[in-house]
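Anyone? Bumping this.
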Amino acid sequence: MNLRDNWRIVMLVVFVLASTAALFAPATSPAAGANNTTAVDGASTDPTNLKYGLQLAGGTRIRAPLVGTTAENLDIGQDERTSVRQTVVEEMDVESGDVNVRLNTGNGDAVEVLTRNVSEQRFRSALETAGVDADEATIRPGVTAETRQQTVETIQAKINRGGLSGGSVTDQRSATGEHYVVVDVPNANTTQVLNLIGDQGEVSIVAHYPVETDNGTEYRNETVLTNRQLERAQIGVADTTDSGTPHVPATLTEADGENYSEALVDLGFTSSEATGSQRCRYRDNPEDAGYCLYTVLDGDVVYAASLTPGLAESIESGEFEKAPTFLMQTTSLDEAQALQVNLRAGALPAELAVDDGTVLFLQQSLGDRFKSRALLTGLVAWLAVSGMVFLRYKSPRVALPMLATAAAEVYLLLGFAAAIGLPLNLSYIAGFIAVIGTGVDDLLIIADEILNEGEIATGRVFQNRFRKAFWVIGAAAVTTIIAMSPLAFLSLGDLQGFAIVTIVGVLIGVLVTRPAYGDVLRNLMLNQQQRD
Amino acid sequence: MVEFVVPEPEYDRYSNRQLAAVPLAVLALALLVLAGWYLMTGAPVTPGIEFTGGTEIQIATGDSQAEIEQAFAFQPDEIQPVAGSNEYIVATQVTDTDAVRSQAEAAGYEVVSIQTRSASFGADSQRLALMGVGVAFVGMSIFTFALFRSFVPSLAVVLSAFSDIVIPLALMNVLGIPLSLGSVAALLMLIGYSVDSDILLNNHILRRRGSFYESTYRAMETGVTMTVTSISAMTVMYIVSSLFQIPLLPDLAIVLVFGLVADLMNTYMMNLSLLRWYRFEGVNR
């Protein structure tokens, strides 16, 4: 066999070998090394390097936009930042952490308000009150790119520290311009994931104390440690004390420790009354709780306690400031762990609007079932194609290479998926089937064209027929690629994978496998003619 | 052994008008169904859960269908048993994942999978799907006109592709199949498949030597085999994947079966009559 005449077959063989390497060689893809072992437990039983998405491996996916409204194309001076922020906070009546001023974003300077249901009119007038020219401003739902990036990083950190391994967090932009944060966590259910990232995870310590007024006893709240101060602190590992109380140890920075102890002394928390007769009785009587230090998570009190007499004494004496370590107590070890994750990873800059997105959960067993059954479905479809091809040509010389070529196309695609570490989902399998479909169509065109009028001539006549067939195939391939490209490039979501696989499959088919089939067919037919 | 031979139709017995009348009548009927649907429901096709928002939960339980219906605080839209298992798929418009999940767990059901789409996200997908199909169709049309550089043959391809999309949509309405992501994928694939056989036919008739009917039959031999092969593969895939309850694949397969059957009619009746008119009368003008 002349290699030069059959370069198309040689190329196909090379691609098949490369594909085999990508599929079966250990650690071909760079991402496959250390990550892969933790990614999906079920993958260890799979002999290939293929990765499976949630639909086939099981797990949880949450896709949601971030809560917030952003005004862009503003012009804010460096020195005006604080005043603008303060005015917007007051005018919009939100908490100070919920407003950010970002300078020099892609669309001029921006102000974002990270709460739900922001009225555009009110936002505009708040900006005007703050002295910002809001006429040119564009106000849109969503947050700035910077906040989005920080939120994605924080969510990733929370998932890694929350004991859910192999999770991935990405920022997706839809064709209509909205951004979604996509969180994929294998082997976890929605409750676990939402508990971890569904809320912002803002922790603070609030002092709740009685004050005697003319109208009797009145309770007041004051935040003594903010989320920011706690994030600056060194957070230990959640544990239970010898007496069985779950807790997280925290060591404050020197300055924060000083402020904290001063505040506690000023508010009377170190008095003998606060550690004695008026000690915290939140659990029995939340209305009249006495002196309590609340541990607050996203606005909810998760624990309430008084200072122990020992700690009160060390605060009074100034011992505490030298080593400002204290235990944040909780009611269960789970809570302590949640607190630890929230403090170590930090609060989410912006909250996920889960109710405006999608939530998907799938048991691993169901994923496995889909995997095997989808494979079987593909196989059955391929057999149906085979049956038709045999009925039509009745010659195994034509039909067998045709079916082998169609199978090679899917094999190359799988190799491609393994090489770039594409996680396979059901939509990809639909794409594979689409590729077999267009592939067989093209092979029929090639076969009919080359076998046209009996004799397979050598050289120029073959080239001529091949070129004619290729014109039709090429035109059809371009149409398919045009039809799929809007979804491949613009979209978010399930159809994107389908479109990408179909496009890559058609390209592999038209450039590699289908031309090789022409050469195979020619060789087989020439042999037959020589023997006749 | 069964043989698969593409029959040669006696085209010369029918006038162009007669040939084109059938596919055009079917197309008109399909458009009428879509228009009627639009007037009645406000949308030309019934959007499925992926486009309207809602929750689909798959549970494993020994309970009967009626008991499941009682177990939830909402009225489920659909409860579908999964063949060969004790599982059911329950669909609802409720979009609170946690609520649906906890109700299922409270009833003692094992949650095998749960998927929620918010209404706003669904509306977004719907816009996206429409845009995708629209852009794909326009792109295909431009390419076709650029390829053939003559009006009638190009129009024949574009019209046939249009009809191939519209007829399955109308059939979906008639048979009560809602539009899903799978059917959108199928519609896009139909653009590709449909153009395949049309380009083949145009190419044989306009660019090859030989009489009109000879060229036509040669194109048909290849083209009909192509389409029938795809139809058989998709029919098998529809049956198997619906038995297995694999999502996405049955929706895709059934729409392709409808579209490919429509394509046989459109290519070899409508497209052919336009080409015959062009070849024998149009060119002389």
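Late reply, but here is one note on the structure posted above: Residues 239 and 250 of chain B are 8 Å apart (CA to CA).
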